[in-house]
# Entry
Amino acid sequence: MMKNKEKIDQVINKFIGKKGSLIPLLQEVQAIDKYLSKDAMRYVSEKAGFNLAQIYGVATFYTMFRLKPQGKHVIRVCKGTACHVSDANSILKAVRSDLHLADGEDTTKDKLFTVVEVACLGCCSLSPVIMIDDNTFGKLTPELIAGILKKYD
Ligand code: FES
# Structure
């Protein structure tokens, strides 16, 4: 049984037959579960008449789409140029080690945090920068990370 079928049906009904609707449709479907599951993409394909390959193509091309379940809080670690030269790598390392993430994992076992690497967050003067949900933290050092993460539960 598909999760959130009714909610997805509502989104599909809103967009069906409209031109250029695939991206906004997928965005709204993603908002329901915070990610696009394979089941959800398959369902949209069957119900809304989009080719599954086209849906995968869009979902994997645009960085706003997430194909894996997300933690309660999403940590965006900026890897843009300004942050990179301000040693964003050591910030990322500190975040990942504080959360005990193994290589290849980006969500903590308790599903509290998901870490994603992004290009410029638009506040380069504060580099290196991370965002946790809607909050920006800048001028970071690896030593500051544990104290910041502790505030989230
Ligand atoms: S490069 Fe990190 S905020 Fe711009």
Remarks:
- The domain at 73-150 is CATH 3.40.30.10 (Glutaredoxin).
- Residues 22-33 form the longest helix (12 residues).
- The radius of gyration is 18 Å.
- The pocket of FE2/S2 (inorganic) cluster is lined by residues 78, 80-83, 120-124, 127, 129 (CB under 6 Å).
